[in-house]
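The following record pairs a protein chain with its ligand, manganese (II) ion.
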Amino acid sequence: MAFKLPDLPYAFDALEPYVDARTMEIHHGKHHAAYTSNLNNAIAGTPLESLKIEDILANVSKHSTAVRNNGGGYYNHSLFWEVMTPNGGGEPSPSMNIRKAINRDFGSFENFKNEFSTAAATRFGSGWAWLCADANDKLFITSTPNQDNPLMDIADKKGKPVLGLDVWEHAYYLNYQNRRPDYISAFFNIINWQEVATRYNAANEGAVM
Ligand code: MN
């Protein structure tokens, strides 16, 4: 079973003015498409073909660099499209589990926003910033280089990603050039908190909050 490039859940221009249509078109149609087909090439004829992407990433240290880079790229972008929405932004409502967990683990939404933005801004070179749930449903922020992510056994801090921000230059350069902090701040206008909440609630099914 080959992995398939997921459709974008909205039009290329839906996230404007925060993310421009041309960037979305290239990012999804070229970058994500290439990670997907390179992943399929890297696992063709191997037992990895029958595994879920999460299970491949969990033991990625045992696989080739091509599986690490392209498997990460496939998973990370699949998550990224889903955690953005043209109807997003603001803060998750006080009644949502994710908001309660943010308040519990960061003290306030503002503290969370600052810590996440700093992680995204200070990731040197290409990579990602993440909000993750650990095995006890506690939230933490981390960042990873290249197309690594916190599901990988090689990650410094392991957990289930519930929100991710791509800080590769290909994600923002056409519109923001070198102004990564402006892109990070714009991202907060298009976060799909409903999707983040769903991912958080599913992160440790059965675990006690
Ligand atoms: Mn990207």
